[in-house]
Design a protein that fits this description.
The chain is an alpha+beta fold and 125 residues long. Helices cover 29% and strands 46% of the residues. The longest helix is centred in the first third of the chain and has 19 residues. The chain is globular.
């Protein structure tokens, strides 16, 4: 299935949710973050470690950080799938910024969208 020609509404919704995800991580708003993540989430770190939702949330609680995104490419597929790619920068407590390229898959599961998969690939130059 190719990206849909429309989808501006879906694009805007997912970008707002991604901004909320970054805010929730940065401000340690765990209930808000948990609501954005699908129960069947798969999160793969730059190291190759893959975590489910519970393990990923525990990881974030132990490794607190601020998270920000750069310019994002958003592709809308049909009515229910959005793929987001682009830079992400994490700053762990007192550490240097860690830049990566991130890929996310968001799926519409009424009444909202959920993040079902994400991965980071190596550090950006």
């Amino acid at each position: 299935m190719a990206p849909s020609g429309g989808g501006e509404h879906a694009r805007d919704e997912v970008l707002a949710l991604e901004a909320e995800r970054c805010r929730a991580i940065s401000e340690e708003d765990w209930p808000a973050l948990e609501a954005l993540l699908a129960d069947d989430l798969t999160h793969t770190h730059m190291t190759g470690t893959t975590q489910d939702k519970a393990t990923y949330l525990a990881h974030l609680r132990r490794n607190r950080r601020s998270t920000a995104r750069g310019d994002l490419l958003v592709r809308v597929f049909g009515d229910d799938v959005v793929v987001v790619t682009g830079p992400q920068v994490n700053v762990l407590d007192g550490g240097a910024p860690q830049a990566s390229e991130s890929l996310q898959v968001w799926v519409r599961r009424p009444p909202t969208w959920e993040l079902v998969a994400c991965t980071a690939s190596g550090q950006r130059a």
